[in-house]
Design goal:
Order of helices and strands: EHEHHEHEHHEHHHHHHHHH
Largest sheet: 5 strands, mixed
Radius of gyration: 32 Å
Strand order of the largest sheet: 2-3-1-4-5
Strand content: 5-15%
Number of helices: 15
Helix content: 55-70%
Number of domains: 3
Distance between the termini: 67 Å
Length: 375
């Protein structure tokens, strides 16, 4: 005999957060009375929205469960974000955890008003089994007038919701602007190639989630700038220095492709020439030193411990310059293996000695501070 499910949660999901955008209602909403109040308020603000019907359908499902004798059941509403994508899914996952803390459900009946809301089904199932999905389809009249009004409502939604606005206005706008630019330049014969390139670019951006990654990096950068401006400037200058060294090395390598792999590698290190005072390797080492100095200053100003590691790293990177120079000369058959070995041993000995000194000093300092503590 099969057992009836216990502790059922009737869950409505508004992935694009029309509830918050149009009615200013915060989620999650747990309980019949709270959901009824929110649905009524939403209906007064946006009576034409399909989410209103879905919220009342969730309440109706809850009432039916109660009438059938399911004592342990609850109804809740959670929302995502108007931006859609990863941001909406993360918010839905967080709000679901909040709901499950208040009502630890063993199974879920999911209510949705479309396919877009059902995209989060794997997120829900990863936390609690979903035993049923109820999709609410609003019946519409087939008259021309109401069809026209329905199209106007969807057009308004396209204009208001950022996710749909990018899809239906942003991408066609880029295409139209590009075609107009080709027409001004009398290059319309390349229109088909341009369309293919734009479609390929959009597919790559969405397929590899490059837009979401760019937004994530932007958020990290803004946080980094506000929390550690020294590190921001250090990495910015280091990146420019590294690119300059890479350009010098790549240019010299390209001019030496016919002289063998060893010669090309040596020119990557010794560019622009072995006789120059500064080489491309100096730019690489300078970029690493800038980062280490930036980390040291940031740690020192923040009163963080273990600043000595950056100091040892800076000494190691500085001494390794001569190792790379001699290696590049050996690849050109004009260096000395003995000098390379000498600089390698010197670099390791100095770096290891500094590491031991700082570690002993750190250990002694901790022991002293421990002995000075009362009692």
């Amino acid at each position: 005999m099969s057992s009836r499910p216990k502790r059922i949660l009737v869950l409505y999901i508004d992935r694009d957060d029309d509830l918050g955008v149009k009615a200013g209602i915060r989620s999650p909403i747990v309980g019949r009375e709270e959901n009824f109040k929110a649905a009524s308020s939403f209906a007064l603000r946006a009576p034409e929205d399909a989410d209103v019907n879905a919220m009342f359908a969730a309440i109706q499902t809850y009432d039916n469960l109660k009438a059938q004798g399911f004592a342990e059941c609850e109804v809740a509403t959670i929302t995502g974000s108007p931006n859609g994508g990863l941001e909406a899914d993360l918010k839905i996952s967080t709000e679901l955890d909040m709901v499950l803390k208040r009502f630890p459900a063993e199974s879920i009946i999911m209510v949705s008003d479309g396919v877009d809301d059902e995209q989060v089904l794997p997120i829900i199932q990863s936390k609690v089994p979903v035993i049923s999905v109820r999709r609410v389809v609003v019946q519409q009249s087939k008259s021309v007038e109401e069809t026209y009004m329905l199209l106007l409502r969807y057009l308004k939604k396209v204009m208001e919701v950022p996710h749909y606005r990018r899809l239906f206005l942003g991408f066609p706008g880029i295409l139209t602007l590009s075609l107009a630019s080709l027409a001004l330049l009398n290059l319309l014969q390349y229109a088909s190639l341009l369309i293919i390139m734009l479609i390929g670019l959009i597919m790559c951006v969405k397929g590899f989630s490059l837009d979401e990654r760019a937004a994530d990096y932007y958020r990290r950068f803004t946080h980094w700038w506000s929390a550690a401006p020294i590190l921001f400037f250090a990495y910015f200058v280091a990146t420019i220095t590294f690119v300059v060294g890479l350009y010098m090395g790549a240019t010299s390598c390209y001019d030496s492709l016919d002289k063998g792999l060893a010669y090309v590698i040596s020119m990557l290190i010794l560019a622009p020439s072995p006789e120059a005072l500064l080489h491309s390797i100096d730019a690489f080492i300078a970029s690493a030193l800038i980062i280490l100095v930036g980390n040291t200053l940031n740690s020192w100003l923040a009163d963080e411990e273990l600043v000595w590691r950056n100091v040892v790293g800076a000494v190691f990177v500085s001494l390794s310059r001569q190792i790379f120079i001699e290696l590049g000369m050996i690849l050109r058959r004009s260096g000395s293996l003995l000098i390379l070995l000498y600089w390698t041993i010197l670099t390791l000995v100095v770096s290891a000695s500094l590491t031991i000194i700082f570690m002993v000093r750190e250990k002694f300092r901790r022991k002293t501070s421990k002995d000075q503590k009362p009692g």
